Amino acid sequence: MKLTDMFETSRFVVTCEVEPPKGVNVHKSLEKAEKLRKYIDAFNVTDNQRAVMRVGSLAMCKLLKEKGLEPIYQLTCRDRNRIALQSDLLSAAVLGIENVLILTGDHTSMGDHPEAKPVFDLDSVSLLRAAKMLKNGYDMAGNKLDGFPELCVGAVATPGIEPFELHMIKLQKKIREGAQFIQTQTIYEPEIFEKFIDALKESNLRVPVMLGHVMLKSAKMARFMNKNIPGVRVPEGIIRELDGLPPDRLVEKSISISIDLINEMKHRCQGVHLMPMGWEKHVPRVVEAIRK
């Protein structure tokens, strides 16, 4: 089922990230998704996230689809030229995968194969344009397709990044090139999200927005994110709440923080994208609380 159809039901949509394994043992990833079947509307499968080589997103999406779980195929520009990117979009459609999230992708220098040659033949804006052309029956070279894909295509945004105005200009380009939904980077400052949503409305380019959320495992993790992830800032007040807690109280506090933050921001968006990063077992509690 397409995400756009889910949004039209007026239901608050919840998606969850799935990381393919580094190796062929896919069972653990599939089992984690299966346990969340009752809580999650669609599973967003990363594409060699952080430029670390793993099982491909397309293969994992197909396996999820076979289990009756709705996948979202992440497709990055880092590793493929325009021929391969267009081919993979067609392949996804042939395999019955309806939802695609398009990203530029982290540079290879950040990953486990820093000597790998990055491609970046297209960026996220031009790949969205290519997807739009495919959906209209033509490839990027203007050649007519023998059957065209019916895909729901989304893009990403980082509301906390600076300069904010330039980021919004690029996001507007993504929407004009066919982005049908927006998924944000994780946000811990509701005022930043408010500013983002207001700016998006002022642009008169209204699309459904999925609020991104990473569950904080520790104060150390929060400080790492502040230092290393552009556009992400965990307020010092939250860090102090987590600092020095024993493991059991830390988990409870983290879950409480996640629930409070999402509940505070959910009235301004159409759904939330959870990035549990190994804490999948705590996702049901969060989902039950935010859907009350």
Summarize the structure.
With 292 residues, this protein is α/β, with parallel strands linked by helices. It has helices spanning 3-8, 27-35, 57-66, 82-94, 124-135, 164-176, 190-202, 219-228, 236-242, 247-265, 283-290, and strands at 13-18, 42-45, 71-76, 99-103, 152-157, 181-186, 209-214, 271-275.
Walk me through what this model shows:
The structure is a single chain. By secondary structure, this protein is α/β, with parallel strands linked by helices. It has one domain (3-290): TIM Barrel. 41% of the residues lie in helices and 15% in strands. It has helices at residues 3-8, 27-35, 57-66, 82-94, 124-135, 164-176, 190-202, 219-228, 236-242, 247-265, 283-290; strands at residues 13-18, 42-45, 71-76, 99-103, 152-157, 181-186, 209-214, 271-275. Strands 1-2-3-4-5-6-7-8 form an 8-stranded parallel beta barrel, surrounded by 6 helices. Helix 4 (82-94) crosses helix 5 and helix 8 runs antiparallel to helix 9 (236-242). The longest helix has 19 residues, at 247-265. The protein is globular, with a radius of gyration of 19 Å.
